[in-house]
Amino acid sequence: MSDSGPVELEFSRKYDLQHAEHYLKKHQDGWSRRLSNWRDQQLARRALKQAGEPRLVLDLPCGAGRFWATLAEHPGREILAADYSADMLDVARRYQGSESQGRVRTLQTSAFSIDLDDASVDCVFCMRLLHHVADVENRTTILREFHRVSRDTVILSLWVDGNYKAWRRRRLEQRREQGRNYDRNYSRNRFIIAREQVEREFHDAGFAIVGHQDFLPGYAMWRVYTLRKSDTAAGSRDE
Q1: Is residue 49 a contact partner of residue 57, using CB atoms and an 8 Å limit?
Q2: Using one digit for the tens of pLDDT, what is the confidence trace for 119-177?
Q3: What pLDDT score does 157 carry?
Q4: What separation in angstroms does the CA of 236 have from each of 103, 198, 209, 211, 229?
Q5: In the beta sheet, which residues pair with residue 59?
């Protein structure tokens, strides 16, 4: 386990039992959310293939278990599902599908200080966390923990620039800040990261990029990266 102290992001405090159950249901609420979830699962499958179909995967944060069925599609895969929120883990265990029954072990822990030994898993699977982390130092802490715990690869998603939605969001944020009624105490909890910046952070944390996939190229902010620890990487390539 890392010696670094735990860090609590402000947004993480909202995941009580009621919010966890809402989070579980919202991805099936309406055709657009179902279509978005289908695309997320597709990107996850491709990323797992890029990572060489790892056998032991740490799903962190696992949330309400949205990716468990996809992770369990590989018959020999073991899934260690972890989250900072005990309520999220409780909801995930209660509502998990038949595909993952008996395939998932759970662990309550933080991505900033993972309660596992070095090189404990083949792959860290981290969906929809890093776009909540604005501070470079905090992202670096997370990436170094992933490097410590993984024997081989990391799969992660975040918001990047260079697309229409990122341009539009930044324009809206600028207008809000320039507005007459702008509240300087307003707290944002989702952030766009420049691609060059985050890829440099990957390198500095000891990773090479195996590949990346965009949710909707040129339009959407979501990008999924597949990384490999540099000392085992044969090279890097983009999809």
Answers
A1: no
A2: 999 999 999 999 999 999 999 999 999 999 999 999 999 999 999 999 999 998 888 77
A3: 98
A4: 32, 15, 5, 7, 11
A5: 81, 125
3-state secondary structure the chain: CCCCCCCCCHHHHHCCHHHHHHHHHHCCCCHHHHHHHHHHHHHHHHHHHHCCCCCEEEECCCCCCCCHHHHCCCCCCEEEEEECCHHHHHHHHHHCCHHHCCCEEEEECECCECCCCCCCEEEEEECCCHHHCCCHHHHHHHHHHHHHHEEEEEEEEEEECCCHHHHHHHHHHHHHHHCCCCCCCCCCCCCCECHHHHHHHHHHCCEEEEEEEECCCCCCCEEEEEEEEHHHCCCCCCC
At 208, the amino acid letter reads A
**Alpha carbon distance 216, 210 (integer Å):** 19
Rounded Cα–Cα distance for residues 215 and 208 (Å): 21
Task: Please list the residues that pair with 229 across neighbouring strands.
Answer: 207
CA–chain centroid gap for 1, Å, is: 20
CB-based burial, 174-189: b 16+ in 10 Å, e otherwise: eeeeeeeeeeeeeeee
Of 159, 172, 163, which Cα lies nearest the Cα of 132? 159
Cβ-proximal residues to 35 (8 Å cutoff; 6+ apart), any chain: none
- Which tokens in the block code for residue 221? 């902010």
Indicate the pLDDT class of residue 15, thresholds 50, 70 and 90: low
pLDDT digits (tens, 9 = 90+) for 46-68: 999 999 999 999 999 999 999 99
Q: How many residues are there in the chain?
A: 239
